[in-house]
């Protein structure tokens, strides 16, 4: 353990002198935080609606006006028949077809339940289809509601303006930590293996724990710096600051960094070439990112896949960061997340120490 | 009588069905310069890796500096120095930083480290180049620095893996003067080389062919035994009997 | 031609000897297609709603039963329990004086993510309030829409076109193909070439009398073959497992993909001429290829939502054109004639990249 400060000095100096790595460590947070929130938005605007009005009454016209007035929709055409509307969808000139049946206005005027309005959405773009249809049915339902039904008031809590950036910014920290603290340490060690410099350490009496810590700690620091950059950029550019404690943001990020760097080290322990390491990491990183609930909701996965997500560190980190940013969650609220991440970090760390062989079989 | 500092008995390493090192038995006495010769692929590197505690023997036993290489490789590592031609110092760290790093790894105290470090740099005339990156040094100087760093923690035994590969003849000469000086101080030197003139400088040499030790004695006696004028002839004569290809 | 074949043989041996990499490369697309085909969906369903009543006279059970009938909602009592038939117990409904407590409890449930929304029913006033966790704006919108639909009349009849069950697998297949080929072709080739630079064997090839063009083509051929193998498995899986209709569409998809594979190989080649170490090649490939492909290709996020400058920027991301075109031919069943723009852009990019790469490559030999 006495050698740890010396080894750390070596790792930091090597990192800072590398032509590529410090730039990457700075560029990744900037790129991710500047570009991703703008792109990773599932805010659906300008859904193009083709309206087929078989009713042609005041009521149907008022519904059409409501659709046209909504910021979500543009009324692009009013074809006479459904078939013509479908053609518009096929030519990619409309996303949704709204059909108002005959007799709609008369029944509504008489206070009876009118025949159902029909919505057909182009599902090739699934998000747009679902959300477009969702907004549209809310609008139609509100318009069609018969008097006497219970009144429903909706309160949007934590994010009253329904700002998608506020939802993505905290979770994007996951992306940047996965890339910086999962991928880089693995590449670092495997390249020492491939070049052979690791032999020089293996032939010394440095302990496995000391060596592993010397490899891990720099990435914890890099991870925390990246998160700090991310927090500042997210706040300055998108006005999204954590509602909860910054200390907790730091703690949960540190734990997650520990998990990812441990993971990177374990992979590197079992790979003899960079190629192998890269593909194994790529495989897991894709699962971490795409299945961790970052971009698509975990709740919409099938049961078995939801069960799998309990094993993904990204799930806990993403949820915790969102809860911290938006809901101002406390340490007690986040106990399960902190616990899961701490366990994973310890487990992977121990595994990394164990799988590092100073003496080959 | 003193104990040998390296002693192996039937030391063997197999990779699958391939026997890289085949039952080698040898002993090296303290203060000796021991030349470990063999063609590429003869198994020298594997044997040396086992002696350094980098690779576990498949069969047989070995003791280095008083410890069992199979069971106590970390204890062995504390008592040896090691340098190789392939890699020995970090190119992207400066001369001073490399000295500090390896001194620190072997647990030298802060003051001890500073004192020995200064002494070392003075001896190599590198004091004013302390802040130069090792990668920028000429190869010969780099190898001398690496050798000195390997001796920094004053191990009783140092392993040198082709230390003079690619170095010009003048530097090789001065390098061997350093080896001689270390041996005179009582450090045992275990060295592999491809240069047969260097083999002549060793107190004793062994020659490996196909994973086995075919000859082991002083250079003079080997030359007499094989009726050869130089170690080169002895080596070529033995290497010709190899059945394994060199790659 | 003979030297070309000899080089191809050598390169193929390199790949075949590294069993682990080969295994990963072949299995990777299969596992990913299966996993993402079945696991990932942007569809929002299975929302968890908690129900509470403001007083004991309110029949929250009737409301809960109606919500539960919706396939998208899962309904539970805020506290207490709901026995599934008509009895509904809510420990808070007996204590109307503890209004603050209820509001704290709602906040707690939402903050810990135990529910997506809480519906508070006030039977005496004939009012209901839905408190939605709006951290995810889309989930919130859908929750409001589903609850509104389940409670009130007038909900319209919604139908999805082309992709009736909203199988997201359909959507993910082109996106994943775009990503997989970039990773496999671009990264593998760049790393393979840079590795030779690192070990110095590239110089050996460059001083040989063989033209650099032959060496490069030979280096790329085995990776091209591996990619074709991947393409075949992906198409087979998409068809037989995910049920993507391929009749009459396979030809166009294959043609597009072959072009894209060549493009990705050219990217790998260009990267390899720009860097000196394997780590640099990988990091560059990862940062410069993977992130833009995930973010700027429309793979997950519809590009039309991005601000205009980013939309222009996305025009240089090859995956954007490829994924768009594959969506059209594979999912909508359009013909190659309908994707001429994409084809032209991809072909142009390939030509440019190859030219740049060969120019850089030749510079080294001068």
Task: For this entry, give a set of tags.
heterotrimer, A: alpha/beta, abc type-2 transporter like fold, elongated, C: 366 residues, alpha/beta, Rossmann fold, 2 domains, four-stranded mixed β-sheet
Q: Can you give a write-up of this model?
A:
The complex is a heterotrimer of chains A (361), B (247) and C (366). Chain A is of the alpha/beta class and 361 residues long. Chain A folds into 2 domains: 4-40 and 160-355, no CATH class; 47-144, abc type-2 transporter like domain (abc type-2 transporter like fold, 3-Layer(aba) Sandwich). Chain A has 14 helices and 5 strands. Chain A has helices spanning 4-17, 21-39, 58-69, 82-90, 104-109, 126-144, 164-195, 197-202, 208-238, 246-270, 274-291, 303-309, 313-327, 335-355; strands at 47-53, 73-77, 96-100, 118-122, 151-157. Chain A has a 4-stranded mixed beta sheet, with helices on both faces. The mean pLDDT of chain A is 86. Chain B has 247 residues and is α/β, with parallel strands linked by helices. Chain B is built from 9 helices and 10 strands. Chain B has helices at 44-51, 73-78, 95-105, 110-123, 139-150, 169-184, 196-201, 219-226, 231-239, and strands at residues 6-15, 18-28, 33-38, 59-64, 67-68, 80-84, 157-161, 188-192, 204-209, 212-217. In chain B, the strands form 2 sheets. Chain B has a 6-stranded mixed beta sheet, with helices on both faces. In chain B, strands 2-1-4-5 form a 4-stranded antiparallel beta sheet. In chain B, a hairpin with a 2-residue loop joins β9 (204-209) and β10 (212-217). Chain B is globular, with a radius of gyration of 18 Å. The relative contact order of chain B is 0.17. The mean pLDDT of chain B is 89. Chain C is of the alpha/beta class. In chain C, 64% of the residues lie in helices and 8% in strands. Chain C has helices spanning 2-17, 19-39, 60-69, 99-111, 137-151, 168-199, 201-207, 212-240, 250-274, 278-296, 308-314, 318-331, 340-365, and strands at residues 47-53, 73-77, 117-122, 127-133, 157-161. Chain C is elongated, with a radius of gyration of 28 Å. Chain C starts with a helix and ends with a helix. Classes of the chains: A alpha/beta (361), B alpha/beta (247), C alpha/beta (366). Chain A binds chain B through residues 2-3, 5-7, 9-10, 13-14, 17-18, 195-197, 199-207, 358-361, and chain B through 49, 52-56, 73-75, 77-78, 80, 82, 84, 86-88, 90, 92-93, 97, 100-107. β5 (151-157) of chain A pairs parallel with β4 of chain C.
């Amino acid at each position: 353990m006495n050698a740890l400060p010396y080894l750390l000095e070596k790792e930091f100096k090597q990192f800072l002198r590398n032509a590529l790595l410090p730039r990457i460590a700075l560029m990744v947070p900037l790129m991710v935080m500047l570009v991703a929130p703008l792109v990773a938005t599932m805010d659906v605007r300008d859904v193009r609606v083709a309206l087929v009005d078989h009713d042609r009454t005041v009521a149907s016209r008022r519904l059409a006006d409501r659709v046209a007035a909504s910021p979500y929709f543009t009324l692009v055409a009013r074809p006479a028949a459904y078939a013509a509307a479908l053609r518009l969808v096929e030519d990619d000139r409309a996303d949704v077809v709204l059909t108002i049946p005959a007799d709609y206005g008369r029944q509504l005027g008489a206070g009876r339940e009118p025949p159902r309005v029909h919505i057909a959405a182009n599902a090739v773009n699934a998000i747009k289809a679902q959300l477009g249809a969702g907004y549209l049915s809310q609008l139609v339902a509100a318009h069609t509601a018969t008097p006497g039904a219970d009144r429903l008031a909706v309160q949007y809590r934590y994010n009253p303006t329904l700002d998608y950036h506020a939802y993505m910014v905290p979770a994007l920290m996951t992306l940047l930590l996965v890339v910086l603290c999962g991928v880089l340490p693995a590449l670092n060690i495997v390249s020492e293996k491939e070049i052979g410099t690791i032999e020089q350490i293996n032939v010394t009496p440095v302990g496995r724990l000391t060596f592993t810590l010397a490899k891990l700690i720099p990435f914890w620091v890099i991870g925390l710096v990246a998160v700090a950059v991310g927090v500042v950029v997210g706040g300055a550019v998108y006005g999204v600051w954590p509602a909860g404690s910054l200390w907790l943001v730091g703690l949960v990020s540190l734990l997650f960094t520990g998990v990812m760097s441990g993971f990177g080290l374990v992979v590197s322990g079992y790979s003899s070439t960079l190629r192998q390491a890269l593909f194994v990491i790529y495989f897991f990183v894709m699962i971490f990112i795409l299945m961790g609930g970052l971009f698509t909701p975990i709740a919409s996965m099938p049961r078995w896949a939801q069960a799998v997500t309990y094993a993904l560190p990204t799930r806990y980190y993403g949820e915790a960061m969102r809860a911290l940013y938006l809901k101002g969650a406390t340490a007690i609220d986040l106990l399960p997340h902190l616990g899961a991440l701490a366990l994973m970090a310890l487990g992977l760390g121990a595994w990394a120490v164990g799988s590092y062989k100073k003496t080959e079989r | 009588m003193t104990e040998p500092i390296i002693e192996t008995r039937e030391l063997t390493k197999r990779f699958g069905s391939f026997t890289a090192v085949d039952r080698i038995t040898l002993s090296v006495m303290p203060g000796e310069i021991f030349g470990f010769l063999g063609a590429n692929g003869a198994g020298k590197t594997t044997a040396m890796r086992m002696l350094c505690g980098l690779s576990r023997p498949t069969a047989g036993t070995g003791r280095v500096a008083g410890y069992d290489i199979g069971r106590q490789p970390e204890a062995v590592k504390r008592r040896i120095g090691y340098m190789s031609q392939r890699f020995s110092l970090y190119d992207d760290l400066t001369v001073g930083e490399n000295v500090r790093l390896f001194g620190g790894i072997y647990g030298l105290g802060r003051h001890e480290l500073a004192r020995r470090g200064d002494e070392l740099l003075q001896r190599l005339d590198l004091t004013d180049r302390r802040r130069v990156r090792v990668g920028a040094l000429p190869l010969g100087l780099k190898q001398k620095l690496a050798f000195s760093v390997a001796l920094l923690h004053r191990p009783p035994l140092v392993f040198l893996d082709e230390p003079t590969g690619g170095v010009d003849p003048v530097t090789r000469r001065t390098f061997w003067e350093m080896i001689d000086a270390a041996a005179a101080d009582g450090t045992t030197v275990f060295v592999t080389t491809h240069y047969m003139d260097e083999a002549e400088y060793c107190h004793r040499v062994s020659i490996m062919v196909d994973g086995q030790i075919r000859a082991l004695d002083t250079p003079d006696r080997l030359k007499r035994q094989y009726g050869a004028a130089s170690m080169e002839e002895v080596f070529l004569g033995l290497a010709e009997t190899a059945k394994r290809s060199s790659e | 031609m003979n030297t070309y074949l000899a080089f191809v043989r050598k390169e193929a041996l390199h790949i075949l000897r590294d069993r682990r990499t080969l295994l990963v490369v072949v299995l990777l697309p299969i596992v990913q297609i299966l996993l993402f085909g079945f696991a990932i969906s942007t569809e929002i369903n299975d929302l968890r709603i908690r129900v509470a009543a403001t007083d004991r006279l309110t029949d929250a059970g009737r409301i809960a039963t109606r919500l539960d009938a919706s396939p998208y909602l899962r309904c539970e009592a805020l506290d207490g329990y709901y026995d599934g038939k008509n009895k509904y117990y809510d420990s808070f409904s007996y204590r109307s004086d503890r209004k603050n407590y209820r509001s704290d409890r709602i906040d707690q449930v939402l903050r810990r993510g135990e529910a997506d929304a809480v519906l508070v029913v006030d039977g005496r006033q004939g009012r209901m309030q839905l408190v939605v966790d709006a951290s995810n704006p889309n989930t919130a919108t859908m929750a409001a829409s589903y609850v509104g639909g389940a409670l009130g009349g007038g909900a319209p009849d919604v139908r999805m076109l082309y992709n009736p069950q909203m199988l997201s697998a359909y959507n993910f297949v082109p996106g994943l193909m775009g990503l997989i080929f970039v990773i496999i072709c671009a990264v593998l080739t760049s790393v393979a070439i840079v590795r030779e630079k690192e070990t110095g064997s590239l110089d050996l090839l460059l001083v040989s009398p063989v033209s650099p063009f032959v060496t490069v083509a030979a280096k790329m051929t085995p990776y091209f073959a591996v990619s074709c193998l991947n393409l075949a498995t992906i198409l087979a899986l998409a068809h037989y497992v995910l049920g993507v209709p391929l009749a009459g569409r396979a030809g166009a998809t294959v043609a597009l993909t072959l072009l894209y594979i060549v493009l990705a190989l050219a990217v790998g080649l260009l990267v390899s001429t720009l860097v000196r170490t394997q780590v640099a090649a990988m990091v560059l490939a990862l940062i410069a290829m993977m992130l833009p492909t995930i973010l700027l290709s429309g793979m997950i996020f519809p590009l039309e939502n991005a601000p205009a400058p980013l939309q222009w920027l996305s025009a240089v991301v090859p995956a954007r054109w490829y994924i768009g075109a594959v969506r059209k031919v594979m999912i909508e069943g359009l013909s190659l004639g309908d994707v001429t723009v994409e084809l032209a852009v991809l072909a142009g990019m390939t030509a440019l990249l190859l030219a740049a790469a060969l120019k850089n490559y030749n510079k080294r030999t001068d």
